[in-house]
Structures are given as structure tokens and as C-alpha cells.
Amino acid sequence: MNLKKAIGSLIYYGFAKYLPVSNSPIKLFQKKWRLICGRLILKNCGKNVNIEKGASFNSNVSLGDYSGIGINAKINGKCSIGKYVMMGPDCVIYGRNHEFSDITKPMMEQGYSEEKEVIIGDDVWIGGRVTIMPGVTIGNHSVIGACSVVTKDVPDYAVVAGNPATIKKYRNVKT
């Protein structure tokens, strides 16, 4: 970890993560503090982004212009978030899973699978408490319904929901 990322992590995880939500009536420059930390920590950090209270992420995350990381979101692993992405609270994005294929060993001793990047396109709305699994690509202009578990790629303009998430309709098709 380079010095810039270390300083950003120290400031963010030391206090900025715990400041009030961005739209709180209590103004402690919380949005600005988290933006500064994001610029230090993230692989890429676009303009006018918003990192909310309690979010956890690492330096393998890219955040596009006008996008946000939701309240208490957890991004574990490589993740590329496009432009104009809205993310609800308590979302989890995984970059890898536990291994469990060897039945002669306890699962906790088998380590992890290979990391797979999650790619989220532009103009995407991710509802609250959504879980996105490793290697998934979310297409441009898509909507992910609250509490969905996304295990497969989502096409452009799709509205998906459920566990596992399935296509409910397309935003660009009139019914």
C-alpha cells in the first residue's frame, strides 16, 4: 500500500466513515471528507461522487462521475462502478467466495476462490440490501430491485429482482 492510500485509509476508517450521512442537517463537511478519502484510496474516483456513512471499500474499486457508494455498503474486491450509479443502503458486492469443493477438509481451511471483478455500467440504480456476486456485470441503464441477489450478468435496460435476481421487464420496451 502506498503512502497516499495509507493516509486516506487512516483518515477514512479513523473518522470520516462515521460522520453523519451526506444529507444530514448536521453539517460537518462529511461529504467533502469522504470525497477526499475516496480520491486517496480508490483506484479511480470521478467527479461529484458521494461516499456515504459506514461504507467499506478498498483500492481496487473505481467510482465513476456522479456515482455513489451507499450507506453501510460493503465492496470486497475488484469493482468498477460506472457514471451516474445510485446505490441504496446495505449493499454488498463480493469479489470472491470461500472454496468448498474438498469434502475432506473443513470449508474454513480451504481458502478463497480466484477474485473476479464486478462491473457496474452507467446509469444504474441498485436498490437497498442488494447482494452482487463475483464476476457479475450489470448492464447500462439497469435497475436492481431491493434485496435482490445478483448471481448472473444483467443486460442493458433490464429491471431485475429476486433471489436469484431474474429479469422482470426492460426499461426500453413499452408494454
Features:
UDP N-Acetylglucosamine Acyltransferase, domain 1; 25% strand; globular
Structure report:
The protein has one domain: UDP N-Acetylglucosamine Acyltransferase, domain 1, CATH 2.160.10.10. It has two helices and 16 strands. The protein has helices at residues 3-14, 30-41; strands at residues 44-45, 50-51, 61-63, 68-69, 74-76, 79-81, 86-87, 92-94, 118-120, 125-126, 131-132, 137-138, 143-144, 149-150, 158-162, 165-170. It has a five-stranded parallel sheet, with no helix packed on it. A five-stranded mixed sheet has the order 7-10-13-15-16, with no helix packed on it. The chain has a four-stranded parallel sheet with strand order 5-8-11-14, with no helix packed on it. Helix 1 runs antiparallel to helix 2. The longest helix has 12 residues, at 3-14.
The proportion of residues in beta strands is 25-35%
Backbone CA Rg:
17 Å
Average per-residue pLDDT, rounded, comes to 96
Shape: globular
Strand order of the largest sheet: 1-3-6-9-12
Under the CATH scheme, which class? Mainly Beta
Major sheet attributes? 5 strands, parallel
| Total of helices | 2
For the record, the CATH architecture stands as: 3 Solenoid
List segments where confidence is low: pLDDT < 50 over at least 5 consecutive residues. Answer: none
| Number of structural units classed as domains | 1
Number of strands: 16
CATH topology: UDP N-Acetylglucosamine Acyltransferase, domain 1
Residue share in helix:
10-25%
CATH H level, superfamily name: Hexapeptide repeat proteins
Structural class of the secondary elements?
alpha/beta
Order of helices and strands: HHEEEEEEEEEEEEEEEE
Q: How far do the termini sit from each other?
A: 51 Å
